[in-house]
Input
Amino acid sequence: MTAPLSSAPERVAMYEPAFASDPHATYRRMREQHGPFVPVELAPGVPATLVIGYHQALRILNDPVRFPADPRQWQQTVPATCPVLPMLEWRPNALRSSGTEHTRYREANVAAIDAVDGHHLRAVVEDIADAAIAAFRHAGRADLLGEYAWPVAFNALNKALGCPEDTGHRIADGMAKIFDGVNAAAGNDILVRAISDLIALRRRQPGDDITSRLLAHPARLSDTEMLHQLVTLYGAGIEPLTNLIVNSCLVLLTNPEYSANLHAGSASVREALDYVLHRDSPLANYCVSYPPHPVEIDGFVFPAHEPVVISMAGCNNDPALGPDPGAAGSRAHLSWSTGPHACPARTPAYIIAETALTHLLDALPEVELAGQPGELTYRPGPFHRALTSLPVVFPTPTTVEGVSA
Output
């Protein structure tokens, strides 16, 4: 007697190193086998649906009634030790709320972020970039991830949020553990303690920064609510911004045509950033929602209370958009999301990344990749597209009449 076939779908494990090493090949196989909606596992035993169709993603992201961002029902079904829980769990902030609470949180965040002075931020990033480059320019080699992109993103965000450096280091440590899904619970504890210290400091000593403006907003956010607004800001500000800078550097180091166009003035740094946001989005899979009831789209039924994850990387490279969707600096990508939960900080993020890249190219115009692109490795994890390092080499400054040039 033949055993009945299981009706459960075979799920793609997004936490495996193989996925991190070549996700685009995986997206192609996903599309061939499943179409725009893919059964995946975010961690062992944690099922979800990954959306890799661009037009289907737009419908979901703009439908907060059928696809709300509140995960409270779902998280009752996973253990506290679930490695992706800190990335997905409910928090009283704009990212994880719906309705009037979402409006209240979002208005406070938008007001605090929109008050950032772009000219001042650019000057701050220039100083941070200068200091980072000065620390390694005489060595003739560097890791652009650990020695440049990360300290630029980290220090720029700390300045914008009014965060002391030592507290910021603790926040960054906790956030990295959460994104990797390794020691995520410990990372969440580190993150909570450090951000709580920042909030206490800015209540005592308000300044001209995002944290102080959030505290002063008419929404009258409690310390708990403040904590979770800042979790979102740091989550979006350190890891994805670092990876945007690094992934953009990699394109310029490995794509001679694009690099030549940039140096010739026929392409801009902003276009290079949008090229990366299209082709290799640093926050590759996120924008999670949790249908309260089964929802049908194009013949596919999304289960109730199971995560629906938007693959920005998969959607941006959907063949339905044409043969070259990211050409000519197009910004019709989903890397900033869209709809009611679209990223409110894209302008300062662009300023930081653009300034970092411009400064690097001006200071080290002859920088080259150390080794071959195939030797580079990526950190595993279902959410990000993150190199482990980006080693480069470049000529050291020459000495003229005893003075370093």
Summary: The chain has one domain: 12-404. The radius of gyration is 22 Å.
